[in-house]
Amino acid sequence: MSLAFATIKQLREKLAKKEITSAELLSYFTKRFEKFDGKLGSALEIFDEKSVLSHTGSNNSSELSGIPGLIKDNICQKDRVASCSSKMLENFISTYDATVIQKLKTDGTLLMGRANCDEFAMGSSTEYSAYKKAYNPWDITRVPGGSGGGSAAAVAAGLVPWALGSETGGSVRLPAAFCGIVGSKPTYGLVSRYGLIAYASSLDQIGINTRTVYDNALVLSSIAGNDVNDSSTLNVEKTDYTKNLTGKLKEGLTIGIIDNALNAEGMDQEVKSLTQAAIDKLESLGAKIKLVKMPSMDYSAATYFIISRAEAASNLARFDGVRYGLRNKGAKTLNEMYCQTRKDSFGTEVKARILIGNYVLSAGQAAEYYENAQKVQRLMRKELNDLFGDIDLLICPTQAAPAFKIGAFAKDKLQMDLQDYFTAFVNLTGVPAISIPCGFTKDKLPVGFQIIGPHLSEELIFQTAYAYEQSTEWHKMHPAGYED
After folding, report:
1. pLDDT of 1
2. Pair 362, 440 in one domain
3. Angle made by CA atoms 452, 455, 458, in degrees to the nearest 5
């Protein structure tokens, strides 16, 4: 068995049998980054091995103990740079650990570096990092998705067995689908946002990239739970999300297929047929399939566009050169310092989103844009609640088409924004979802589909995803050229 593409579960077995030490495992994956990441750009920094080992706990009973992982660069790690892939924060060293980092360290996990991402998590391709682009390991002429493309690319290429990302409109699930791995977005409030540098606070949620459903459930079991430092977290007891992974579906499971998603205009036919094949597989495993419609989904991209930009304008107002981040030192007045700092330190995409956010919140425009978007958001929540009165779970494509070429939408911002078409409604409504691989196109590009459930239905989602995964071979495949 190659360590590169081993699961967390398999690596833990090797550690338990003393076939390898955690230090040797860390060294192995560090060398893989050195060998392969020059062409992938998945990591902004891989930490010194001694530093990684000294920054973790010693809970040998944890299933994550001794397992290396990568952290998206908008999640704070104490005494590490947290740049959000932005020049604005290139010298910002966090003074504290995010709650998820505290929990992972307590479980003995080895946090080996910072994953590349779109600047301030704003993008769908990881082309907007201020430092370097990330590339898809299945085809390095294509994007890995975004904003957490670095996390997904690293897992897909076997550079690390798991990675944390964050979601505002699909930034874990879309890269997972583009890179042929598993990506989950938990219920809003299940995982603390304390230490996650905010993009749009009402939508942001930390998520997980892994190669298998079991591993994804394992990591969520570590990081989920209430947190006094985040008042939006839910009062839930610690849960082992792996306990129902039997390989069988829940008896009487009813799954709704979002018809207006599967048959959306412009849908790639290969993606559609592979998603349909996944639905047929679940039906053969015993699920009852029911076609449903979600009319408000047609407005989800526009609604997400407005709400996310509005909150981004508010959240990023703090980066002004006064308290932390870069400062323009040539300015002669305070106002000039504000303007020049933000002009010089933010990238074009971030500045565009701030400008749009300020516009949709401005006097005379807020009622037409921001308030109407919130009305649509409430309508989506009601539609989903009504749907889940008759069904247990929903299925929807993760992507409209396979991973696109680097630069394909450089002059077509609308198409770039529409990459979140099938994912954004999950963030707008706060429900959980997982994207899992369901096959490959004729060009050997991965395709994923989503399983979506009502609030706090993670156990059922994992159980269903695991049953599908165990009946297929997609999770066992990995891109060529990354072997030891």
Report:
1. 64
2. no
3. 60
- Does one domain contain both 304 and 402? no
Three-class secondary structure of residue 43 per DSSP: strand
* Sheet strands side by side (includes 110-115): 43-46, 110-115, 68-72, 162-167, 205-210, 182-185, 433-440, 446-452, 393-397, 254-258, 288-292
3-state secondary structure of 139: strand
Q: Are residues 168 and 313 in the same domain?
A: no
Phi–psi pair at 427, nearest 5 degrees? -70, -40
Domain that holds residue 440: 8-254+389-476
Domain boundary residue, one of 374, 407, 434: 374
Strand segments (E) across 73-204 = 110-115, 162-167, 182-185
| Residues sharing a CB contact under 8 Å with residue 458, sequence separation 6 or more, in sequence order | 184, 186, 187, 190, 217, 220, 224, 239, 241, 432
249-274 per-position pLDDT tens digit: 999 999 999 999 999 999 999 999 99
The DSSP secondary structure of 254-278, one letter per residue, reads EEEEEHHHHT-TT--HHHHHHHHHH
Query: Does residue 290 belong to any structural domain of this protein?
Result: no
Do 332 and 186 reside in the same domain of the chain? no
In a shared domain, residues 324 and 408: no
Type and span of the H or E element at 213: helix 213-223
**Contact indicator for 190, 458 with CB cutoff of 8 Å:** yes
Determine the Cα–Cα distance for residues 290 and 365; give it in Å rounded to an integer: 41
Consecutive H or E run containing 45: strand 43-46
Tell me the average pLDDT across 72-86. Answer: 98
* Angle made by CA atoms 404, 269, 183, in degrees to the nearest 5: 55
Does residue 77 have a pLDDT over 70? yes
H-helix or E-strand containing 309?
helix 300-315
- Residues 6+ away with beta carbon under 8 Å from 201: 193, 311, 315
Query: DSSP letter at 371?
Result: I
pLDDT tens profile 419-451: 999 999 999 999 999 999 999 999 999 999 999
Residue-by-residue DSSP string for 421-454: TTTHHHHHHT--EEEEEEEE-TT--EEEEEEE-S
Which residues are annotated as catalytic?
Answer: 72, 147, 171
Which range, of 58-67, 294-303, 337-346, averages the lowest pLDDT?
58-67
